[in-house]
Amino acid sequence: DAGVIQSPRHEVTEMGQEVTLRCKPISGHNSLFWYRQTMMRGLELLIYFNNNVPIDDSGMPEDRFSAKMPNASFSTLKIQPSEPRDSAVYFCASRHPGAGWAYNEQFFGPGTRLTVL
Amino acid sequence: GENVEQHPSTLSVQEGDSAVIKCTYSDSASNYFPWYKQELGKRPQLIIDIRSNVGEKKDQRIAVTLNKTAKHFSLHITETQPEDSAVYFCAASAEYGNKLVFGAGTILRVKS
């Protein structure tokens, strides 16, 4: 299995531009998570989906951020308009649907390093 | 909501010594406590986890202990090696691994 796939790996944009980050979860996983990592705030959960449905978006910083999961194999995180304080590494993670404790692990993608100038 | 505090923020040990990282959590409903290791420029990866009905779990040189009464859990690494140098994050979840709340991280440096 290729693991969680994220694109792009690096994104440099100017303030005010729209940014779209993409994620493909591990095949067969039904939970998908978006995290943001910064030095100041650490690793924060932004939103997560179960079976393509957003369950908890309380971590989304503001209305400029939106996330979608149109199908089981694809999710996007969009920032419009972007601001310099959005600069961070954004990770996507996925989790197996199994009910037992053996299925708790979240598998992280390689991340997208976003720089907003 | 859940709040996870992690100490120390940095830890330097000599190769071969032990390292201990401690975390406390606030939500008594939390039932799952994973530890992730993140090497520089890489993704976080699970190294060990423990659930609320277990007090201790060991996997080779790493072990985790949980004290539910005191709401704290710890990561123990024995016989540290240079490749153990990384950032370690603890986390807690009251949703069987869904909504993880992470600690701030501990930078571990193993000096050879």
Please provide a written account of the structure.
The complex is a heterodimer of chains A (117) and B (112). Chain A contains no helices and eleven strands. Chain A has 117 residues and is an all-beta fold. In chain A, the strands form two sheets. In chain A, strands 2, 4, 5, 6, 9, 10 and 11 form a seven-stranded mixed beta sheet that branches. A four-stranded antiparallel beta sheet of chain A has the order 1-3-8-7, with no helix packed on it. In chain A, a hairpin with a 2-residue loop joins strand 5 and strand 6. The mean pLDDT of chain A is 94. Chain B is globular and about 40 Å long. The chains are: A mainly beta (117), B mainly beta (112). At the A-B interface, strand 5 of A face strand 5 and strand 10 of B.
Compact description:
Chain A is mainly β and 117 residues long. Chain A has no helices and eleven strands.
Mean pLDDT of chain A: 94
Provide the succession of SSEs of chain A.
EEEEEEEEEEE
Largest Cβ-defined interface: A-B, 21 and 21 residues
What count of helical segments of chain B does DSSP give?
0
Given the helix and strand composition of chain A, which structural class is it? mainly beta
Give the total of beta strands of chain A: 11
Number of strands of chain B: 11
Unreliable parts of chain B = none
Main sheet of chain B, how many strands, which sense, barrel?
A: 6 strands, mixed
